[in-house]
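Homework-ish question, so no full write-ups if that breaks the rules, but can someone show me the predicted structure for this set?
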Amino acid sequence: MSTETLNVVGKSKLRRDGLGHVTGKTIYVNDINFPDMLTLKMVRSPVPHANLKGIDFSEAEKVTGFVRALTYEDVPKNIYTILTLIGVGPDEEMVLAEDKVRYIGEPIAAIVAETEESAMEAVSRVRLDLEELPAVFDVEDALKPDAPILKDWGTNYFVYEGHHCRRVRFGDVEKGFQQAQFIIEDCYQTTPIEHAPSETTGCIAKPEADGRITVYTNTQALFFTLDNTAIILQVPFQKLHLVGGTVGGGFGGKVDVIVEPIATLAAMKTNRPVKYVFSRQEEMQASSSRGAWRMYFKDGVMKDGRIIARQITTYADSGAYNRHTPYAVTKHAANIAGPYRIPNVWIDAHCVYTNRQPGSAMRGFGVTPASFALEMQMDKIADQVGLDPWAIRFINAYQNGDMKPHRKIVEDATLIEVMQAAAEMVGHDLPEEYKSMSSWARKED
Amino acid sequence: MQAKIINLTLNGKNIDVMVSPMTTLQVLLRENLGYTATKIGCRQGSCGSCTVLINGEPMMSCLLPVEDVAGQDVVTLEGLMVDGELHAIQETFFETFAIQCGYCTPGMIMVSKALLDKNPYPSREEVINALAGNYCRCTGYEPIIQAVIESAKRMNSVGN
Amino acid sequence: MAKFKGTGIAAVNYPTGMNLGGDPSQALIHSTTTGTFVISLSSTDLGQGLKTVIAQIAAEVLGVSFENVMIDTADTDTGPHCMGTFASRATHRVGNAVIQAAEEARKIMLEIASDELEVSPEDLETDGEGNIRVKGSPDRSINIVDLALAAHFKYGKTIAGRGMYMKPKSDVDPETGKMDPDSTEAHACTVAEVEVDTETGEVVVLSLKSAYEIGRQVNPALVEGQIRGGSVMGMAHALYETTHPYYPAVDHMPGGFSEYPLPGPMELPEIESVVLEYPSVNGPYGVKGLGEMTANSPIPAIANAIKDAIGVRITEIPITPEKILKALEEKDIPEA
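A: Not a homework solution, just the prediction itself:
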């Protein structure tokens, strides 16, 4: 493949959508307007954990322009199924809160109104009867026996086929620790961040004359969104027609199917187009974040720098609900030992619930915190063993043919090559031993 | 409260518009007039996606009541093309890949035009200063800075 | 006032594809009467440039010019299924699906050309500009416009193709964690140089120099876009942004950009990169995913550089001035 002449692949062709972007002619969801369109705004929980005893719409209904409110009773199947569609259960998040709220910002009721101002005014006049409950915010506190429990099944963690975490067991770390000349431990913490795309999450649901509904959306995954929406609304899949594909920044923040179901329901109930676009504040505080991760490392290292045992215990802060976090924890477990050849690896990766805005996919999902932690740990090892940071990585770098802790054989490895190239870029003269390494020529064991 | 009629110049055309009090220029442009190039990013005056030119000055249309631009000269991205041809800034952004998702692009182009119309030979520092109020999450800013410097070159070489 | 410089490195891998597979994408291609090829997809472009890259791949396989390929996305009525754009999967999966569809269309195209030019299809080649010609006799050729007209009105054939790519879904062994999570691995190594002001705690990232290995660059300018954008996002994650300034407490969550610190054009480091290409076993033209990896390696590189600069390891991100000053308080400030 490297010897063929390519005409187009490999060339910096100008962007297909470039002219639309520089003339302002590219259409994003919020640029679309229809006659008689309604605006949907959401009533959200002001507290992190509470029993929802009642909602009073009487003052809201008096606002000029108020059309209707939607509560969980209007939602045909009031449960998020996003994980079921990718084979991970159980479903535990509601579209609209029923009897409990578990994070500040949780959607409780939708207000549909003639204008944005009247929708916002009506939302501000909705009275909630909330009985606050103790909340838990720290992942390790959430696993203690006295923690307030978030889930109906009685725990604050996701169950992985009978286990309380995702496990990787490779070799025998205890034996490795006995043989090791250094034991190096530390804890690493990432805090939640926001995708902060320039364009906020949003959609417009428009009833068509033939009874179908067209949903204009900036989702990153059209069919995923269509299927979930149809299941929630209990309508035949062919009733929905999703149009999109032009997204003003995604970064993983537009895969949660968070606006389409309720907007489509509102369109069905009012038989008018309904626009539901997040304000910047909602985007920051209520849309999914990148969940925080806490990672404990314990490494057994030989004095020549070889890591022979790596034990990792991590806690993903999923926030109040799953979204995609349980899936990410598996991806995280597949990558947290790092692109290194380590004969004994033990990983317990937990998915824990706390009373905060749920975490979900974001650029690097599960691997970003892993790379941060393990690459800081590599430097700590280098310090303690008395080697330089390049050496510790070359000594342990994986190669094609190695077995990873999840038992996949390494292929397409090029870690050694990127390190060699980076060293050359910065003028760091590597010892000949590392310069002559290759991902294909296996090191002696 | 009663709607009122405001007169202003928009992209070179003198127009009368009818708006309820305190309607922002952003809403007027996008919803009343259908000019959607000016984007909504935050409506808090912190991202610059809604930047338009008022008498040549870059301003955030999300913070401007229409009453405040009565009698003023308003220019949006839609007004930038010259005789159906791309403005040099538009052409440069396109050709130098200073765009990704495109959402910040209208604001970036407007703020760049304001700079280059006043300061045809800006230093890198001056370009950075001019762009500092406009948020971009995709590009890492450097391609945009380069595009503005290149735009200046192109604009200055016209007619030479 | 004392400022200290430091250097830090990080070397990472990044997997391509939705974890454990089961994330298919499909593509349909058809030619119009005048030889314009339309690729129907339901994939989304987030700004990374998928619409451009897919047109390049299709044009390459078909042997027509880039300008002759139209991308029609995204509409669930007309575009076949795509799992979505995430997990650095799009170019890899959609690219492979488009190659399969384009190969089917190309085969039909060459069959029609072989009838028109009266040679066997093996004796034909495309010139990348819309001409199908006889190998060794370039003057014996037919243009794609004429060929498409002939297909439609003389032969009654459709120049069309279907493509699909899926890495089958696999399960995880709950006891051992045995799994097949990804299609291929890209790699990156970043060297960060920082300067830390021990009086204010502020960190200036002076440079981020990185080597990336991504299988194949379909569009080098778009790759550079991911490198620059990802580097700044990584820097933001390492030093500036958080929705929970007092994590795990939920106090002071930001309500907008003025409360959510992010680096701007004034905070840019010098960013330099080199891109290596070792084609993957299963990517289209050897492509590996890139979009997420670029934000990852800068983060620990910066954290390690801070340790090198001031002798303290801060193991929580973002590494704010507050955290640096607190860490320095708990340790002697090193001699300049």
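Now go work out the reasoning yourself. Hint: The two ends of chain B are 55 Å apart (CA to CA).
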